[in-house]
């Protein structure tokens, strides 16, 4: 079998849709069989597909001729009309094929179904809206009560008025955090679009520890072998660490030490962990701990009942997963537990 025939066999049997069209006429020259299986198109009946693929092509060719090399390879997100009429979200990647003189003669590329990613984005936005509402409702109640106390409390002593101000400042800070971190658009963008600037993983841990020490003095950082810089969504990872530290503080005694760990992962990538020597997780609850709304027995029973909505660990895992990583928990053999973040990042 010749190389050309072998390449044709590979394209014909691929699960992705591959295509090629003539730049001068816009005529489809090749369309892989996957187009029929996925979108109902054949080479003979693909005018709607050809119209989609050639949209903006004249302007692209003009810019390429003017020296814009970014037009050589282009990726677009759009909705492709299926042969039966309904729209399918897709990614279309296309590359200009050049002749021996460097002029474009054909356009070739692939079509990938993006339905799953679009559904994931929709779920993220729905989750962020729900989460924002869960936090904002009690905060608004507190905010209104404090404002009323301030208006009607002219006879209160100075110490009491200072406490009102402190509560109001804390509420304002939490509401600002909701706007900054938990808007549907902000949470949905975590991990999907990397920040142009990298962040120091050591600084990430040290900053998280410093911010938590007013609530728990015994917090230490243990780091070794980490890279100087880490490419991730810095705000998202800060939020994830804050949620895990907050969880450790709430479910351990005031004198229990909390350790933040950062190191190379044995399986490759990087590992962050939040560990403590408090009570472990009940065996029958480990598998449900990251479920939305789940609250274990330690949260709802006994003298140490902890207020909450069961969303913190669920949100922390969502942030890690959009980075392509995992968030897990394990109990130590004697006492304590460790929440482990793994990120697939070369170090």
Automatic annotation (TrEMBL):
Reaction(s) the record says it catalyses: ATP + protein L-histidine = ADP + protein N-phospho-L-histidine
All residue ranges annotated as the PAC domain in the record: 74-126
One of the GO biological process terms: osmosensory signaling via phosphorelay pathway
Domain Histidine kinase residues, every copy: 130-347
Stated name of the protein: histidine kinase
Record InterPro entries: BphY/WalK/GraS-like (IPR050351), HATPase_C_sf (IPR036890), HATPase_dom (IPR003594), His_kinase_dom (IPR005467), HisK_dim/P_dom (IPR003661), HisK_dim/P_sf (IPR036097), PAS (IPR000014), PAS-assoc_C (IPR000700)
Keyword Transmembrane: yes
Annotated EC: 2.7.13.3
NCBIfam families for the chain: sensory_box
Pfam families, per the entry: HATPase_c, HisKA
Membrane topology, as annotated: Multi-pass membrane protein
GO MF: ATP binding; phosphorelay response regulator activity; phosphorelay sensor kinase activity; protein kinase activator activity
Keywords for the protein's UniProt record, in alphabetical order: ATP-binding, Kinase, Membrane, Nucleotide-binding, Phosphoprotein, Transferase, Transmembrane, Transmembrane helix, Two-component regulatory system
Localisation per UniProt entry: Membrane
GO cellular component, one term: membrane
Top-level taxonomy: Bacteria, Pseudomonadati, Pseudomonadota, Betaproteobacteria, Burkholderiales
UniProt key word Nucleotide-binding: yes
């Amino acid at each position: 079998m010749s190389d050309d025939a072998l390449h044709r066999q590979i394209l014909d049997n691929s699960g992705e849709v591959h295509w090629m069209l003539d730049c001068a006429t816009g005529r489809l020259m090749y369309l892989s069989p996957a187009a029929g299986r996925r979108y109902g198109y054949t080479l003979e009946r693909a005018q709607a597909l050809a119209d989609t693929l050639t949209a903006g092509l004249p302007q692209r060719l003009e810019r390429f001729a003017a020296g814009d090399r970014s037009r050589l390879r282009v990726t677009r997100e759009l909705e492709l009309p299926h042969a039966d009429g309904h729209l399918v979200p897709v990614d279309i990647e296309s590359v200009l094929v050049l002749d021996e003189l460097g002029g474009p003669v054909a356009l070739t590329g692939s079509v990938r179904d993006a339905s799953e990613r679009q559904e994931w984005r929709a779920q993220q936005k729905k989750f962020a809206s729900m989460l924002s509402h869960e936090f904002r409702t009690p905060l608004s109640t507190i905010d209104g009560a404090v404002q009323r106390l301030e208006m009607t409390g002219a006879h209160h002593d100075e110490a009491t008025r200072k406490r009102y101000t402190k509560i109001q400042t804390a509420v304002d800070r939490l509401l600002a955090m909701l706007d900054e971190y938990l808007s549907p658009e902000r949470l949905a963008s975590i991990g999907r679009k990397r920040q142009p600037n990298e962040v120091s993983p050591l600084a990430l841990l040290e900053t998280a520890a410093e911010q938590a020490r007013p609530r728990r003095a015994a917090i230490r950082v243990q780091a070794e072998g980490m890279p100087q810089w880490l490419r991730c969504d810095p705000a998202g990872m800060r939020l994830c660490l804050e949620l895990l530290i907050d969880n450790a503080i709430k479910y351990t005694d005031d004198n229990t030490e909390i350790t933040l760990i950062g190191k190379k992962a044995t399986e490759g990538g990087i590992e962050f962990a939040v560990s403590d020597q408090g009570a472990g997780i009940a065996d029958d609850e480990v598998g449900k701990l990251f479920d939305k709304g789940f609250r274990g027995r330690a949260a709802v029973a006994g003298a140490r009942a902890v207020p909450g909505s069961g969303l913190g660990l669920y949100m922390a895992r969502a942030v890690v997963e959009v980075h392509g990583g995992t968030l897990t928990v394990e109990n130590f053999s004697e006492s304590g537990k460790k929440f482990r973040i793994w990120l697939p990042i070369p170090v």
